[in-house]
Design goal:
Structural class: alpha/beta
Order of helices and strands: HHEHEHHEHEHHHEHEHEHEHEH
Bound molecules: iron/sulfur cluster
Distance between the termini: 23 Å
Number of helices: 14
Helix content: 40-55%
């Protein structure tokens, strides 16, 4: 990001009056319509494993937390996919912790191949991989990789990640570029809002995005806005209000109009319904954050979701806002690999 663009982005993050914010919100809404039409893409996460070797203080899957650990068998994954498909979803996000011995690349390959038979878009939110590993995952059928830096502040990153491979800040930071070099078509970035001063983290996130966009201009990019609400260890969080979240979304839409902006069920229905009219163009629905959560009930969630509405209720809200729900990712049909 050039210094002047960075400065302009930074201005959008500063304190604004209600009138200024409203003015920018209107511009953001118009730009979203211009680039994405009156549509909202829908996706659903599928948690494959809650096994993890990392000590991330803020996460329910932290190795030190006592909970029933499970990595789904291929049969169980197929059962979950069947339920998801029946609900109408066509865009799936596969998630794991970081336990390469039981839920590594070799475990994922047959699952991705199976998902490929049912879904038009397969995203991965897994541990950072080498370029060679990303190639294997892409060849199996993966279309997108999402990887959050969590926080871009190196000291805070070190404090939040007590042990495990995730302690390596740079290996994680460079993962999106390795995936792009391997030929992935879509990259999702983000940071966990609340771990550190949000302005500093968001500015670094915008810079990271900008560097990658410049170098890999043929790829598609998206930004997610996971806001942490509570943690298993009651760690002290840096406040990020709903107004701050709205301002962040507007700043990204105005500065990166072509980039997909995603809001998950971590947020409550009220704020989600506001944001679909401000700049968000993709949302999740009916999410479960525990492995096997679609076919059985257990309390092994990574985090509690805030928007529990069924899909038909969310579709009704979209239609009331003159937005068309989109389930299929048509762009995957256009190209398999872009490099
Ligand atoms: S955030 Fe990811 S890597 Fe860290 S403990 Fe949770 S599942 Fe493991």
């Amino acid at each position: 990001m050039s210094l002047s663009s960075l400065k302009k982005f930074d201005i959008l993050l500063q304190d604004l009056s209600d009138d200024e914010l409203m003015h920018l919100a209107n511009k953001s809404k118009l730009l979203t319509k211009q680039y994405f039409g009156n549509t909202i893409q829908l996706y659903i996460p599928l948690y494959l494993s809650n096994e993890c070797s990392n000590g991330c203080l803020y996460c329910g899957f932290n190795k030190d937390n006592s909970l029933f650990r499970e990595t789904l068998s291929l049969d169980k994954v197929i059962q979950e996919m069947h339920i998801i498909k029946k609900r109408g979803f066509d865009n799936i996000l596969l998630l794991t912790g970081e336990q390469k011995e039981t839920a590594g690349v070799e475990y994922l390959i047959p699952i991705i191949k199976e998902a490929k038979k049912k879904f038009s878009f397969i995203g991965l939110e897994i541990f950072p991989c080498s370029k060679e590993e990303y190639v294997k995952l892409i060849n199996a059928g993966a279309s997108g990789v999402t990887i959050y830096q969590e926080t871009y502040n190196k000291k805070k990153y070190n404090d939040m990640h007590l042990f495990g491979p995730k302690k390596d800040y740079h290996f994680r930071y460079e993962a999106p570029e390795r995936a792009l070099k391997a030929g992935i078509r879509k990259i999702g970035l983000g940071c966990l809002l609340g771990l550190h001063d949000w302005r500093e983290d968001i500015l670094s996130l915008a810079n990271h995005l900008s560097i990658l966009m410049k170098k890999y201009w043929r790829a598609e990019f998206s930004i997610s806005f996971p806001r942490i609400h509570n943690t298993p260890n009651n760690i002290k969080l840096s406040p990020v209000t709903e107004r701050n979240l709205i301002q962040i979304i507007i700043a990204f839409r105005l500065s990166f109009p072509q980039v997909g902006l995603i809001l998950s069920t971590r947020e409550n229905p009220i704020i989600r319904d506001i944001c679909i009219n401000l700049g968000i163009n993709q949302i999740s629905a009916e999410s479960k954050t525990n492995p096997g959560g679609y076919s059985c009930n257990n309390n092994n969630e990574q985090f509690q979701i805030q928007d529990n509405r069924p899909l038909n209720e969310i579709i009704t809200v979209l239609q009331q806002n003159h937005l068309e729900p989109i389930f299929k990712d048509w762009s995957t049909i256009l190209s398999k690999s872009i490099y």
